[in-house]
Task: inverse folding
């Protein structure tokens, strides 16, 4: 038998959900284990990161420890795979780039309603927060990406198998409408009328038509501004897309593109009042947007 | 690619302010660099063509007059046509406007002006480098014309067209020939002539539902009392007089421009000219009063003669200005279908990708901006070029103490208004604006991607000013209003990054609004300066 491909995995700033997605392969995971040998992982009691063929990194870079672990991984792995949206685009933790670090620490350790006599920790026991959250490819070179919050288990499997077989993993590049089976009626009619009179939240609809495009029901869906590859799971579960697969390769960023597009489809007034447009557009990809964080006050550089 | 740079002294108007000889030395690495006294004299033009041939040039940058000036004067059109016949693609000719937007605007600041001219030449070089050739389609013009309106002018136009051997469709929305015509004894014989000619079809109670195609071959959908029919004509003459209601309905179908009272306005923006941006569409200017008949006779004959001269050609070549689709990214969401004001986009149900009808696409770039995937791009102003231009201009360090501003100008109104501002500030020193305002031309307000604005701020511009068409003057009908809607939402994004949205200014202008442009830009720069000082920079 040929030697197995050696793998190390880790999580940085994240929820560990992407590792759970790996386990969601269920019994198929056993087939994968026939091909790979996991040498290091957060759930194994090994102190030192070994030299491996493939390093799989979940999570964004948000503190000094994340950065150190990531750099070690890069040094000791022949190939680095960014696993999940946080690693690929900064993800949910990246939203903190809209705030000042001091304000976040103050809120988290002092101002929260349940905290009594809180103080912001100083010293080495807790790794200091970086000023801004970054995607892992903003820190080290990344070879392959598996976006998704969490990624499809099958996408993780397919990427690993491709790497074992020495192939380049397949990457999908169109937007999510490609994978979504919902019917489009008004969206494809060449008229300048908005597809809906009012923008609403999904829970405000008496019934959500499971077969009709969400935008045509007045519900904001990020599908058009989001890359395919998730199998349109949310849409099949009758929920609109929130954009976790990140922007398509030709877009510079997701938020501005979503704004450009949605304002041609939905009444802009409704969009402004109904939704947190910044949160919608950049929920998963703020650290890789054109302006990836809040601008510091001038003169306080 | 072999690119040549031609600089103009404009008989001293440019060279007394911008050091064109220094610029020629700075760009001496290009295969050919030459300085001319003018681009519009026969001898100079012959030398330009000779230089193109001798050096095997594939692309040209003209550093001198505004591209709008090339459009306007005969000799400008001639040199472009001649270059095309010498193998240079239209899309490989770019302009660095160092006259109106540099020399005239910044007279008395010679060093600064030369530095700015250098940057604008770099931008133009990037444009030819990043644009690919434009495809073209050849049509054989139809010898038939749609005449809209049965007022006296429409009747005379129809008669003259018939005399010149063209077929005529005379369309009227009213149930009969307009009363004003019936009251004019000297028009009635022409009316009889039209009515009795087999080659004329008169249709009453008929509306124009749709117009597509181009000069020489338009497909028109007519609706007569609920009955639809499709006709194909070579050209269109509008004789709608003061029927502003009808004009408003026809405007989006033929991209017509109107003045503040709602009357049709020509390409030259002068009362007597009935020339539109489309060489196959002419109108007869409206005039009141007793001189009307003699006046309209002249205008009508001019419109008929101009149009038939074009339609009598054997072939007309049309550049295909369409936006393009990257099919590897397009998922068929339909956003472009909803955005296009000309119904040029549709989704191919088999392939599930967007397709563009070149006979309808006006090349405005609205779909390029709207496309959420970035699959679309405009042939004439590719996204890559615009981003590169923003990058080049961001490196301009001219006046350190003045705020640095990117001025995004729409081709229809903003850009000519900036030209007019240059001419004005050359005459009135008080109209001068800061050289730290860097212009970039885009096709239309609808072609302004919020990503470009974001990029400009990330590249260190202190402010971004957008100059676009006023109200009903957008050459692409909805470009200005679509952009405003996008900006309304985008301001929220700027604020989320702690960028004061006052640093983004939108102004509406007409092509000759030089004064408005100058004043708005000046006040914007002053406000930016105050704001940065208040922040203690």
Result:
């Amino acid at each position: 038998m040929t030697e197995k491909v050696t793998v190390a995995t880790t999580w940085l700033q994240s929820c560990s959900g992407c590792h759970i997605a790996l386990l969601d392969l269920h019994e198929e995971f056993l087939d994968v284990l026939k091909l790979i040998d996991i040498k290091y992982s957060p759930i194994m009691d090994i102190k030192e990161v070994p030299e491996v063929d493939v390093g799989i990194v979940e999570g964004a870079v948000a503190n000094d420890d994340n950065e150190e672990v990531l750099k070690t991984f890069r040094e000791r792995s022949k190939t680095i795979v960014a696993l999940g949206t946080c690693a690929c685009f900064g993800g949910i933790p990246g939203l903190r780039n809209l705030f000042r670090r001091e304000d976040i620490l103050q809120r988290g350790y002092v101002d929260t309603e349940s905290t009594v006599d809180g103080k912001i920790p100083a010293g080495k026991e807790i790794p200091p927060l970086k000023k801004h959250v970054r995607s892992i490819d903003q820190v080290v070179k990344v070879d392959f990406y598996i976006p998704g919050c969490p990624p499809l288990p099958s996408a993780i499997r397919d990427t690993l198998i491709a790497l074992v077989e020495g192939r380049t993993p397949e990457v999908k590049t169109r937007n999510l409408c490609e994978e979504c089976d919902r019917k489009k009626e008004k969206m494809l009619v060449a008229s300048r009328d908005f597809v809906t009179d009012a923008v609403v939240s999904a829970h405000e609809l008496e019934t959500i038509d499971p077969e009709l495009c969400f935008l045509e029901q007045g519900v904001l869906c990020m599908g058009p501004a989001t890359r395919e590859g998730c199998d349109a799971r949310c849409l099949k579960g009758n929920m609109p897309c929130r954009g976790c697969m990140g922007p398509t390769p030709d877009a510079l960023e997701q938020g501005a593109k979503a704004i450009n597009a949605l304002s041609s489809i939905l009444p802009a007034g409704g969009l402004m009042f109904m939704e947190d447009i910044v949160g919608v557009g950049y929920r998963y990809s703020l650290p890789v947007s054109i302006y990836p964080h809040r601008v510091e006050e001038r003169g306080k550089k | 690619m072999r690119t040549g740079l031609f600089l103009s002294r404009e008989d001293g108007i440019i060279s007394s302010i911008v050091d064109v000889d220094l610029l020629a030395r700075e760009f001496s690495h290009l295969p050919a660099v030459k300085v001319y006294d003018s681009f519009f004299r026969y001898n100079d033009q012959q030398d330009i063509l000779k230089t193109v041939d001798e050096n095997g040039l594939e692309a040209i940058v003209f550093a001198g007059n505004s591209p709008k000036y090339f459009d306007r004067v005969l000799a400008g059109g001639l040199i472009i046509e001649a270059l095309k016949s010498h193998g240079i693609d239209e899309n490989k000719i770019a302009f660095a406007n160092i006259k109106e937007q540099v020399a005239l605007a910044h007279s008395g600041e010679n060093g600064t002006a030369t530095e700015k001219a250098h940057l604008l030449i770099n931008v133009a070089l990037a444009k030819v480098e990043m644009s690919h050739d434009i495809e073209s389609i050849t049509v054989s013009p139809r010898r038939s014309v749609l005449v809209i309106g049965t007022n006296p002018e429409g009747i005379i136009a129809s008669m003259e067209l018939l005399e010149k051997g063209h077929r005529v469709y005379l369309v009227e929305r009213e149930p009969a020939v307009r009363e004003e015509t019936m009251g004019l004894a000297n028009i009635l014989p022409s009316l009889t002539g039209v009515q009795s000619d087999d080659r004329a079809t008169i249709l009453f109670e008929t509306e124009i539902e749709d117009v597509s195609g181009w000069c020489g071959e338009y497909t028109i959908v007519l609706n007569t009392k609920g009955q639809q029919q499709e006709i194909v004509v070579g050209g269109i003459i509008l004789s709608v007089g003061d029927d502003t209601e009808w004009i408003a309905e026809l405007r989006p179908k033929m991209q017509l421009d109107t003045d503040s009272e709602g009357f049709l306005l020509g390409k030259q923006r002068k009362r007597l000219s009935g020339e539109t941006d489309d060489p196959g569409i002419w109108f007869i200017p409206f005039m009141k009063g007793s001189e009307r008949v003699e006046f309209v006779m002249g205008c009508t004959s001019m419109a008929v003669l101009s149009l038939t001269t074009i339609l009598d050609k054997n072939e007309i070549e049309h550049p295909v200005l369409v936006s393009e689709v990257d099919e590897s990214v397009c998922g068929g969401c339909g956003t472009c279908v909803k955005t296009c004001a000309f119904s040029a986009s549709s989704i191919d149900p088999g392939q599930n990708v967007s397709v563009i009808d070149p006979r309808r696409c006006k090349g405005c770039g609205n779909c390029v901006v709207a496309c959420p995937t970035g699959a679309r791009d405009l042939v004439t102003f590719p996204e890559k070029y615009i981003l590169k231009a923003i990058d080049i201009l961001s490196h301009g360090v001219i006046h350190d103490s003045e705020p640095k501003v990117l001025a995004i100008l729409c081709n229809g109104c903003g850009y000519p208004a900036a030209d007019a501002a240059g001419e004005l500030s050359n005459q009135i020193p008080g109209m001068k604006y800061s050289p730290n305002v860097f212009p970039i031309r885009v096709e239309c307000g609808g072609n302004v991607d919020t990503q470009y604005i974001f990029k400009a701020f990330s590249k260190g511009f202190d402010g971004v000013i957008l100059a676009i068409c006023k109200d009903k003057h957008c050459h692409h009908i909805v470009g200005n209003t679509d952009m405003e809607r996008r900006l309304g939402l985008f301001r929220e994004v700027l604020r989320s990054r702690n960028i004061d949205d006052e640093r983004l200014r939108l102004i509406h202008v007409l092509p000759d609004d030089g004064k408005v442009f100058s004043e708005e830009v000046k006040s914007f720069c002053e406000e930016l300066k105050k704001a940065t000082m208040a922040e203690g920079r």
Q: What stands out?
A: Chain A is about 30% helix and 15% strand. Chain A touches chain B through 56 residues (CB under 8 Å). The longest helix of chain A spans residues 64-76. The CA atoms of residues 91 and 284 of chain A lie 4 Å apart.
